[in-house]
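Each lists chain and fold; for instance:
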Amino acid sequence: MPSEYFLLSKYMCKNLIAFSPTQTVLEVMELLQKHRISGGPVLNASKQLIGMISESDCIKQIAESAYYNMPMHTVLVTEYMDSNVMTISCNLSIFEAAQQFYTTKKKRFPVMDGQVLVGQISQSDIVRAILNINNLPSK
């Protein structure tokens, strides 16, 4: 089987729903639900990756807003996003990506080509890739 079948870039999501640091967490929750995703990248005005925000980050905000009696509609993404972002290279194989998922326990990685965000890969993308590869006719 040709090696291009194993490239991460073949299976990553390229049409990303990205978030802004100036959006509220409530707006993020609405977009996560609308697009049926569990998280995504946070980009600055120059379209550079500065963080990731997920449903887990939103859950944390919900719990803290109840505990501290804080209004949810004013809390910004920057307060809850993960700014210590682990990225993955678009040149990796799905097997190398699987190893990264296994060792870090992350659910998704932004995919970079140098300093440019080119996509996102999730654990379910890797599982789907393996199922697709196993269904390909062998030569």
Observations:
- The radius of gyration is 17 Å.
- The mean pLDDT is 89.
- Residues 55-68 form the longest helix (14 residues).
- The longest strand covers residues 116-122.
